Amino acid sequence: MLAALEALRGEFSFTVEVIDVDADPALAAKFDELVPVLEAAGQELCHYFLDEAKVREYLGAFR
């Protein structure tokens, strides 16, 4: 998912923070089998694979 997300950097300006969900018991309980997960400002955008349309829609709102 991270590589697919990085491909959008040429079109949008954003930063990515990679967090080890398994290292935090609260996050492990919250996301369990949904890893990898992409979350932005508390909003879960996608799990497992990048939902490019949803991410584009989210990032496009900041243009």
List the helices and strands and how they pair.
Layout: H1 2-6, H2 25-31, E1 37-40, E2 43-47, H3 52-60
Strand content: 5-15%
Integer count of domains = 1
Overall CATH architecture = 3-Layer(aba) Sandwich
Helix content: 25-40%
Mind telling me the CATH superfamily name?
Glutaredoxin
Mean pLDDT rating: 94
Task: Identify the overall geometry.
Answer: elongated
Q: What is the CATH fold-level name? A: Glutaredoxin
Instruction: Please give the count of helices.
Output: 3
> So what's the CATH class?
Alpha Beta
Strand order in space, largest sheet: 1-2
- The low-confidence runs, each spanning 5 or more residues with pLDDT under 50, are none
Largest β-sheet summary? 2 strands, antiparallel
Q: In terms of structural class, how would the helical and strand content be classed?
A: alpha+beta
End-to-end distance? 23 Å
Rg estimate, integer Å: 12 Å
Give a brief description.
With 63 residues, the chain is α+β, with helices and mostly antiparallel strands.
Characterise the protein shown here.
- By secondary structure, this protein is α+β, with helices and mostly antiparallel strands.
- The mean pLDDT is 94.
- It is elongated, with a radius of gyration of 12 Å.
- It has one domain (2-60): Glutaredoxin (3-Layer(aba) Sandwich).
- It is built from three helices and two strands, in the order ααββα.
- It has helices at residues 2-6, 25-31, 52-60, and strands at 37-40, 43-47.
- Helices cover 33% and strands 14% of the residues.
